[in-house]
Design goal:
Layout (H helix, E strand, L loop, with lengths): L1 H32 L7 H27 L6 H33 L2 H13 L3 H27 L1 H6 L3 H14 L45 H5 L84 H7 L40 H13 L2 H10 L11 H7 L3 H9 L14 H8 L2 H9 L15 H7 L3 H9 L14 H7 L4 H9 L14 H7 L3 H9 L13 H4 L3 H9 L10 H7 L3 H10 L13 H7 L3 H9 L12 H7 L6 H6 L10 H7 L3 H9 L15 H7 L3 H9 L12 H5 L3 H7 L12 H7 L3 H9 L14 H7 L3 H9 L13 H8 L6 H8 L13 H8 L2 H11 L13 H7 L3 H9 L5
Helix pairs in contact: 1-2, 1-3, 1-7, 2-5, 2-7, 3-4, 3-5, 9-15, 9-17, 10-11, 11-13, 12-13, 12-14, 13-15, 14-15, 15-17, 18-20, 19-21, 20-21, 21-23, 23-25, 24-25, 24-26, 26-27, 30-31, 30-32, 32-33, 33-35, 36-37, 36-38, 38-39, 38-40, 40-41, 42-43, 43-45, 44-45
């Protein structure tokens, strides 16, 4: 992921530096040619050079990092990428201004008059451009220093373009006071500041201002075939002359041609016109002004309708009056009719043998060499303009920024919609290269800005939207771009513009061209939804002005996302959004702690008691989230303190420790006694302060909770909160009032509480079974307290379970011992059975301690209870040691019978237990 972001940043940085080199040449040309300079031009040039050097430093660093396999942090590369795009936009604005100024300088009297008026009324352009460049310079300075420290100045200086070098030298000469003179046209007198070896790279501005380079000193085509393609300057006016190739691009965009490609396949074609001539006059490739349709007129003479570039068309349509993208005003729809069939076409003179692969490769080579004459002669000989799947001649010409070759290819039938193997169409290539003039001529020849270059790819118009290429967007709109077509990932054009943070004016322009403000993406989202989510109130207003429905779910009702954006919410409500379709929107505003949204909704008349999801109220949510400002605002606007949410507002104050809100609720009419149980809630949440406040304000300490029937006292007992029990008893809690159980029955589990509670009970013996409950809880201390309070040791629970049998059953030996030896429990008094029988059934292994305790206290093993005795139980268990123990202590009654009429011996014999029969016969008789 980090490598991908770094590669993208490097690509955009390179794009900006290439344009910077072009601008440096244009600026040098203007300084050289202008009769009078704008105020602040020299300062602007220095600011521009500072930014260029910083950009080249960063580019050199990124290239070195990429080469060595290092990666910068993703956040850093993303931020650099954004600043590179900003710098590119600043450069485009500066380039446009320079081109316009150069055009005025070269024009006649009318142009000079226009120049005078522009100087009079556009004095703020240079300060604005300087301000924009200054911001970019300050941000990128530290990044550049980082790379300078790691790479050194020497390596960075190697990457500086010739345009930068020339402009810097010219400014230095001017500042030293050297009289300025134009560079001569003779090669023998080059500028001293510019190395002669680099002069072949200079842009063909005007031949009166540059040094002519003889053909033999130029870089030959054969030399270029072995190295990657070089970027060249963008022709800002159609029909520009010899190209100026700046720094080599290390990453070729099209496949390299085979090394054996050469010019021999051209036969006797005349290539002399493909080179510059030694002349001081303005150079042109136009040989004739005769009709392009004349058979004797070469196609290099462009018709008048093809000489206007993309920017010129935009200016003629009133779409580019301002140089700055962010100052663009929305434009009305301007649509231009396109009829490709009426565009100029040229048929080759012959086509015999022209389809040879070598000639096709020669055509691509000529395009890369930017030799328009060779291209023209190859096409006229019959070499197809649509070379094939491996190479796309149009895209290659666009990437070379050669408008003349683009025009020639279209004249000879190149398909403006054919994409290359990389799924890039010619129009997409013009966007990538910033070559607006080529885009204009492609559109005239039928290029479709709505046609994706390949499945699952975006159309050229969508690409322009994604890249925020304002001029291309305007141009495509003029030529029929479909503003309602979805992008490759299923988004509408409007949504894509909003997510890309396009300016309002551009979005309004697309709306003026018919974009559906209610159109939905494949996920059901509308542009209005995205605008609200992004917090763009300007875009929300614009969409509503163009028919966006504020009540159309997209996918949610618009008021839901608008709750997070109070300004958008205010606009929507004022423009017809129906809050009745979003019950609970007030609670949502409260939940997200947006008091501004709450105020907007209250002002619009939304009910402050409306529930969200049929449960949650705004007032309870403000208590829950501890928002006193929203709490008081809601109460002041009619919120009902008795309308429940998941719980009542007064209860919410207790459960969320918001006691400070409770007096205000009561003052507003909150009822502490309906529903009952608020004091029990305070005990449950352990809030002594709240309990005291409630009791002081008249809440009964005996109120039961509606659901659990618990009282404050029983809850305090169940939670073992002794201090609450003491307070409640002191404040009038009745220990005889049943909650989820009787207080004394619950208190046996907590001896300390039982000790406090028993004195408050008039008749502890009235609660049957309480002694057995204490035994079952294994609370010997509670047993002692109950005995001390007069509760019987034989007190049975449910009339069946006696304390002694329960103690035996639960194996509480200490309680058994206490009941037998100190409390006086009867060892022969049955509970669920006789104690001795219960002891036999519960004894384990050789542990007969409980049995022996019972026998010592007089337990009779021969006593029959419900057809059973301890002797019979021992026989049934087949336990010889226990049987001997019983007989030794008490003897045996051999005549006793069980509930089926059998004696102990008969039972032993039926089971075949001879040992038991022998023990019984030899045992002594019971006394």
């Amino acid at each position: 992921m980090a490598e991908r972001y770094q590669a993208a940043a490097l690509s955009h940085c390179h794009k900006a530096t290439v344009l910077g080199n072009v601008i440096a040449i244009h600026m040098l040309e203007y300084i050289t040619a202008a009769t009078g300079h704008h105020n602040g031009l020299n300062e602007l040039a220095h600011d521009f050079l500072d930014v260029c050097r910083i950009m080249w430093s960063i580019e050199a660093g990124l290239v070195e990092y990429t080469r060595s396999g290092q990666s910068l942090p993703t956040e850093m590369t993303q931020e650099l990428d954004r600043k590179f795009n900003t710098a590119h936009g600043d450069f485009q604005a500066l380039d446009h201004w320079l081109n316009r100024s150069l055009s005025e300088e070269r024009g006649g009297a009318g142009k000079k008059l226009t120049r005078g008026w522009r100087k009079m009324f556009s004095g703020n352009e240079i300060p604005k451009m300087r301000q924009a460049l200054g911001k970019t310079r300050e941000y990128l300075r530290m990044s550049a220093l980082m790379f300078q420290w790691s790479l050194g100045e020497a390596k960075i200086d190697e990457s500086l373009g010739i345009g930068y070098t020339a402009l810097s030298a010219a400014l230095e000469r001017l500042e030293k006071g050297t009289p300025h003179s134009r560079v001569g046209s003779s090669r023998s007198d080059p500028p001293a500041e510019i190395p002669f070896a680099k002069q072949h790279n200079m842009h063909n501005m005007d031949h009166s201002h540059i040094v002519e380079i003889p053909l033999e000193e130029r870089v030959s085509l054969a030399d270029t075939l072995g190295v990657p393609r070089s970027n060249t300057t963008r022709s800002s006016t159609p029909g520009s002359g010899v190209p100026f190739p700046p720094r080599n691009d290390s990453i070729p965009r099209l496949p390299d041609l085979p090394a054996e490609t050469n010019w021999q396949g051209l036969g006797q074609l005349d290539l002399s016109n493909g080179t510059q001539r030694h002349t001081s006059s303005h150079h042109t490739d136009t040989v004739s002004t005769r009709s392009v349709h004349s058979r004797t007129t070469p196609p290099s003479d462009p018709p008048e309708d093809l000489r206007s570039g993309g920017l010129a068309e935009l200016e003629n349509s009133g779409l580019s009056d301002n140089d700055y993208v962010h100052d663009l005003k929305p434009t009305k729809a301007v649509r231009l009719a396109v009829n490709p069939s009426k565009m100029p076409r040229w048929a080759p003179r012959n086509s015999v043998g022209a389809d040879a692969p070598s000639l096709r490769l020669n055509l691509i080579a000529a395009i890369r060499e930017r030799n328009s004459k060779a291209v023209e002669q190859l096409l006229d000989r019959g070499v197809p303009a649509n070379v094939g799947p491996d190479h796309n001649a149009l895209i290659e010409a666009i990437r070379q920024h050669d408008l003349e070759i683009v025009r020639l290819l279209l004249l000879f039938g190149a398909d403006p919609n054919t994409a290359c193997s990389e799924a890039v169409s010619p129009l997409v290539a013009t966007i990538e290269e910033g070559f607006l003039d080529a885009a204009a001529i492609l559109l005239k020849y039928g290029a479709d800005s709505n046609l994706p270059p390949a499945p699952e790819h975006d159309s050229p118009f969508a690409v322009a939207i994604i890249k925020q290429d304002t001029h291309s967007i305007h141009l495509f709109l003029m030529y029929g771009a479909d503003v309602n077509r979805l992008t490759a990932n299923g988004e509408t054009i409007l949504i894509k513009m909003i997510t890309n943070k396009c300016n309002k004016a551009l979005i309004e322009t697309v709306l003026n061209y018919g974009a559906d403000a209610n159109g939905k993406s494949k996920e059901g989202k509308t542009a209005l939804f995205e605008g609200i989510t992004a917090g763009r109130v300007d875009i929300v207003t614009t969409l509503l002005d163009h028919g966006a429905n504020p009540n159309l779910p997209g996918p949610k009702h618009m008021l839901w996302p608008a709750t997070y954006q109070p300004r958008c919410l205010q606009v929507l409500l004022a423009r017809g959004a129906d809050y009745k379709k979003t019950p609970g929107v007030m609670e949502l505003a409260t939940s997200i702690n947006s008091i501004d949204s709450v105020k907007v909704l209250l002002k619009a008349g939304v009910n402050p008691n409306a529930k969200k999801d049929g449960v949650y109220t705004p007032l309870c949510s403000s208590i829950r989230d501890n928002r006193p400002d929203i709490f008081h605002l809601l109460l002041a606007n009619g919120a009902d303190p008795n309308v429940p949410s998941a719980e009542y507002p007064c209860f919410k104050c207790i459960t969320h420790s918001r006691l400070e809100f409770l007096p205000h609720l009561v003052a507003a009419g909150g009822n502490l006694n309906s529903p009952k149980g608020i004091a029990e809630t305070a005990v449950q949440y352990g809030d002594m302060e709240a309990l005291t406040w409630l009791l002081d304000n008249g809440v009964s300490p005996n109120d039961q909770a509606p659901d659990t029937k618990a009282t404050p006292l029983t809850t305090a007992i169940s939670l073992n909160k002794l201090e609450f029990v003491e307070i409640l008893l002191a404040r009038g809690a009745n220990p005889n009032v049943r909650g989820q159980d009787w207080p004394v029955c619950m208190a046996v589990n907590y001896p300390d509480i039982l000790k406090v509670l028993l004195p408050a009970l008039a008749q502890p013996r009235a609660f049957k079974g309480v002694m057995e409950m204490a035994v079952s809880a294994n609370k010997l201390e509670s047993v002692k307290l109950l005995l001390g309070a007069g509760v019987s040791v034989e007190d049975r629970n449910g009339g069946v379970f006696s304390p002694l049998t329960t103690a035996i059953r639960e194996r509480h030996k200490d309680i058994v011992r206490y009941l037998l030896e100190e409390a006086g429990a009867d060892p022969n008094s049955p509970g669920e059975h006789l104690p001795i029988i219960k002891a036999l059934r519960r004894h384990q292994g050789e542990d007969t301690e409980v049995i022996e305790m019972l026998l010592r206290k007089g337990a009779d093993p021969n006593k029959i209870y419900r057809g059973h005795s301890a002797i019979i139980q021992a026989v049934e268990m087949g336990d010889a040691p226990v049987l001997r123990l019983l007989i030794e202590k008490w003897g045996v009654d051999l005549d006793a019978i069980d509930d089926s009429g059998r004696t102990p011996i008969e039972i032993a014999e039926m089971r075949g237990w001879d040992e038991g029969s022998d023990i019984l016969r030899r045992g002594k008789k019971a006394v």
